[in-house]
Design goal:
Helix content of chain A: 55-70%
Strand content of chain A: 5-15%
Structural class of chain B: alpha+beta
Order of helices and strands of chain B: EHEHEEHHHHHHHH
Largest sheet of chain A: 4 strands, mixed
Order of helices and strands of chain A: EHEHEEHHHHHHHHH
Largest interface: A-B, 24 and 22 residues
Oligomer: heterodimer
Number of helices of chain A: 11
Shape of chain B: globular
Shape of chain A: globular
Chain lengths: ~220, ~230
Amino acid sequence: MEGVVVLLNCFVSPFGNRVRIALKFKGVAYEEKAENLAAKSPLLLSSNPVHAKVPVLIVDGKPVCESLVILEFIDDGFSAAGAPPLLPADPYARAHARFWASYVDTKLNEAGMRVWRSPKGATAAVEAARKDTVAALKTLEAELGGKPYFGGDALGYVDVALVPFAPWFLTYERFGGFTVAAECPALAAWADRCVRENTCVAESLPEAEHVFQFVCGMRKAFGLD
Amino acid sequence: MSPPVKIIGHYASPYSHRVEMALQLKGVPYELIQEDLSNKSELLLAKNPVHKKVPVLLHGDLAICESLVIVEYIDEAFDGPSILPADPYDRAMARFWTNFIDTKFSQPIWLAYWSEGEAQKAVVKETKENLALLEAQLNGKRFFGGDTPGYLDIAACMLGPWIGVLEEVTGVTLVNGNEFPALCQWAKEYSSSEALEPCHPDRDRLVAYFTENKEKYKMMAKTMLQQ
């Protein structure tokens, strides 16, 4: 695939950071434009009129939206020599990977959001959200099993889909009152391994404290405190 | 000899129907195992322990869950006409719109049919905006996929057989010919498609199912909108 590659992202977005990791993994040169989600740029609004969300990947002027769609697009289109595939070749293994990436979006993200987004004092809601988040993390940990990565011996599609949520663990922990290290030690170890062994991950993720500060700012802005 | 193909599904589920459509278009014979959703089988719970939902595709010893994941698997595992387009950008567009159907479109339209009063007005408005986006995607084509049904047609199957049934059972009209002529034409193309005819749902059976479950769905919609 030829052409200029632009990524519209917000530095804390786990969805946007999936795309950062994938582009670096593939060795694709790109320009990143930081979006202020409180004041979305005309480029974002015209490139993603349906959802008005980050990330958007623009290749030669043509936008692709939705992070997992973008990941598959990058895998389909940037398979130059030396760039490893994100998804395995076997159809069943591909289906397995897609199933688990979808799980991250529908189960982990949904519960995690309820942990930090609940208004101050909504203890029952936060407790329910904490239970669901821990359950989702434990299910993912069980899927990881004894493997170093969800992809097996090396980083793959599910790893790239999940690891951008690792900087958000501290936020879930502080609002939810639990620790990932205690509940899911193997998953915590996996997150550290991803960063330690893969520059594409280390270079793509924000500091957990910065995510927490960002979320605190958002809560104030939305009157949740 | 290829391993046997079975679907654990339900005749009233458009998600289950997506899998039948994909196998039909690929020319793959299959057996449909009807699940009793009020009393889930050991087989379903064993093959889909994470979500405990239909549909599940059984291909020999393999079990694949989540309808769109299954459809992509069918496209990749079996020979036959392609369901997804070949070009990476076209594939991304097809996946974007199938994701739209599952994450933005499905819940509001369901609520629009089963809710009432003030709460219904907001979901009807949202549904019509969503329908307009899908109408625009047809853009003069017979099917979303072009001359023959493709990935997005499979994902959008609810807009085929189910709409007429839901509108009859609930008395709510959403997909009318004035506002959405292309979608109405698409529904006709769908129902007269020879390629898909063998897996067309039985309309009377769908009407009976939704009539039987009308009060339950209305209660569910009311609860969901109150949250």
